[in-house]
């Protein structure tokens, strides 16, 4: 019985130790996201991450970079909105909630499973296309 309890106990210790040893590493990774969330200008890393996230999501089924498809061309979105923290937040919320009325009556589908931080990275990439 004792042996059976020792194994998970050891696993927990190992996990805690790794978490304690690694905080510098974890923080370095989190920094760009934290910066965007705090309302700073997007970094090159955020923009690159946003491009990657868009390629893995369903965005490109409705959007192309330079031609209108179901949704507006990303270049047109970039021309309409300056790359400011306020616009990252506003458009990230629109991507998550979905909706229509800005570019026409066809609605964008909601993306409820996207985090605000990831949606902001996607938008920072779109608004960097000028
Ligand atoms: C089902 C098709 C569809 C998908 C999928 C889609 N969009 Fe859209 N998107 C649209 C349409 C249509 C509009 C125009 C909405 C409007 O007129 O308000 C739009 C508008 C936008 C806008 C501009 C919003 C505004 O208010 O000006 C952004 C930014 C955007 N989409 C990003 C994305 C991203 C990022 C994804 C992937 C996570 C995505 N879209 C997926 C159809 C789509």
From TrEMBL:
GO terms for molecular function: electron transfer activity; heme binding; iron ion binding. Residues 45-130 form the Cytochrome c domain. Keywords: Electron transport, Heme, Iron, Metal-binding, Signal, Transport. PROSITE patterns: CYTC. Binds 1 heme c group covalently per subunit. Heme c binds at residues 59, 63, 108. Pfam families: Cytochrom_C. It comes from the Bacteria. Residues 1-26 form the signal peptide. This is C-type cytochrome. It comes from Mucilaginibacter limnophilus.
